[in-house]
Design goal:
By secondary structure, the chain is an alpha/beta fold. The protein has three domains: 44 residues; 204 residues, 3-Layer(aba) Sandwich (Rossmann fold); 168 residues, 2-Layer Sandwich (Ribosomal Protein S5, domain 2), CATH 3.30.230. The protein is 25% helix and 27% strand. It contains eleven helices and 23 strands. It has a nine-stranded mixed β-sheet, with helices on both faces. A hairpin with a 5-residue loop joins strand 20 and strand 21. Helix 4 packs parallel to helix 5.
């Protein structure tokens, strides 16, 4: 084995260490690793005779999917599980990754599908106790507690299950390699062997991955490039609602999210997400209603804002669920176009329900909530604000406007403020405004 240095961000390999990666420019990302070689000292490689073919001549077979019958999970997956796919799921410790995987085994077992659950972190007694709490009782679930990657590959080859779950990829290792479990070499080689096994046999493989303090899957970034799908489990640890989001999916869209509720019997899908993101029925001071789009679905969300006098020389700007720089930009737009002095006010913004969004359509709702808090007066009942705000104060149209308007009307909202520049169907409930001065006037400014 030869010693190499491996960049954990981009996967660049070099024989010499340096503080900065020559490929991506990241600092302190080169980690010492070993390169697996053959007896002659050359890197193991295999060449198969292949010939290029024209794309138009390639035969295409419709991808068959295996559904879990859980709508929120199937939606994130792009319609279901594809044979031979390799999926990596990450999330904060204790957020429910193992719970979701054990429930996935039960969902598949209810359809008569054989599932092999491989655990390298928990004992049989621990998993048995959790399975009782989650009411996992399918006879088609098989448990293998081991830290050896080769034993997992042998079990897959011998039993040929319909689904394999490995919890977690950082806990297993290959005994022939000298490095410790969780190291770059072990992660890369273990993932490669499991991937080859899954692709060869056409068995879907789910791997649980630890995350770093920054919230990314621990280990080299190359792991996410090797797998077909990467899912992240999001949500506050003390919040009962969890969001499953796809950041990579070779078999579907990455725009969809699934919403789950953590109960004493495990995770349950939320069929009406709008009830989660709206906290109160009556309009309160400093709150406004917006509409975001995640994939093919529209969600009505509540924006909560508090603007108070600052007790310190530098006012605070605190944002939860949105981008921090977005608030600074919107406050500057308000000061420029509405002549409002906000440099002596602390401003706090929160999206109700624990959701996180970067949808620009929330700009108008944020400004309306700030105006309500500054005036100490609630906004008009039944109002929704949808629009992106430009640096000159103009209100710009956003995508999928018809779907957002229909969602708001379906939930009973009677005044929908949108951009005056977009083309939408005439509706008496739609109020068009062209800039934030018109918004301020419409709110009684």
């Amino acid at each position: 084995m030869a010693t190499i240095f491996f960049c954990s961000d981009c996967g660049f390999e070099t024989s010499k260490w340096s503080g900065k990666c020559p490929a991506c420019g990241s600092w302190s990302t080169l980690k010492e690793s070993t390169k697996v070689t053959g007896k002659s000292g050359k890197q193991i490689e295999s060449y198969l005779p292949v010939k290029p073919e024209r794309i138009v001549d390639l035969k295409y077979d419709e991808v068959s999917r295996l559904t879990t019958r859980i709508g929120e999970f199937d939606l994130v997956m792009g319609g279901g599980i594809v044979s031979g796919m390799v999926l990596l799921i990450g999330g904060e410790p204790g957020i429910g990754k193992s719970t979701l995987m054990l429930q996935l085994a039960q969902w598949m077992g209810e359809q008569g599908k054989k599932t092999l659950y491989c655990s390298g972190e928990e004992s049989q007694e621990q998993i048995r106790l959790r399975s009782k709490r989650l009411k996992v009782s399918s006879e088609h679930i098989y448990l293998l507690c081991t830290n050896d990657t080769n034993q997992i590959v042998e079990a897959i080859t011998d039993s040929k299950p319909d689904l394999v779950i490995v919890d977690s990829i950082q806990s297993i290792s290959i005994s022939s390699l000298e490095s410790l479990p969780g190291s770059i070499t072990q992660l890369r080689e273990s993932t490669n062997r499991l991937l080859r096994c899954a692709k060869t046999l056409g068995i879907p493989l789910f791997m649980v991955g630890h995350v770093t303090k920054e919230g990314f899957v621990a280990g080299p970034k190359i792991l996410e490039h090797m797998v077909d799908t990467v899912l992240y489990f999001e949500g506050e640890l003390r919040n009962q609602y969890k969001i499953l989001r796809a950041v990579k999916n070779r078999f579907g869209s990455t725009n969809e999210i699934g919403l789950f509720e953590m109960t004493n019997q495990g995770l349950a899908q939320v069929l009406n997400p709008n009830n989660v993101f709206l906290s109160l029925e009556h309009q309160q001071i400093g709150t406004s209603i917006g509409c975001i789009v995640e994939g093919s679905r529209s969600f009505i969300v509540e924006v909560q804002t508090l603007a108070t006098g600052s007790n310190y020389g530098t006012p605070q700007r605190v944002v939860v669920g949105l981008e921090q720089k977005k608030l600074a930009i919107l406050l500057a737009i308000m000061e420029k176009n509405l002549a409002l002095y906000l440099r002596s006010n602390d401003v706090f913004i929160n999206l109700a329900g624990g959701i996180r969004s970067a949808d620009p359509s929330l700009d108008l709702a944020i400004l309306a909530a700030i105006i309500s808090s500054l005036k100490d007066k609630p906004l008009m009942e039944g109002s929704v604000f949808i629009g992106e705000v430009g640096l000159n104060g103009e209100v710009r149209p956003v995508t999928q406007m018809e779907g957002r308007i229909n969602e708001a009307i379906k939930l009973g909202y009677s005044k929908i403020f949108i951009s005056g520049y977009g083309k939408v169907k005439a509706n008496p409930k739609v109020v068009k405004i062209k800039d934030i001065k018109a918004l301020y006037a419409a709110l009684g400014g």
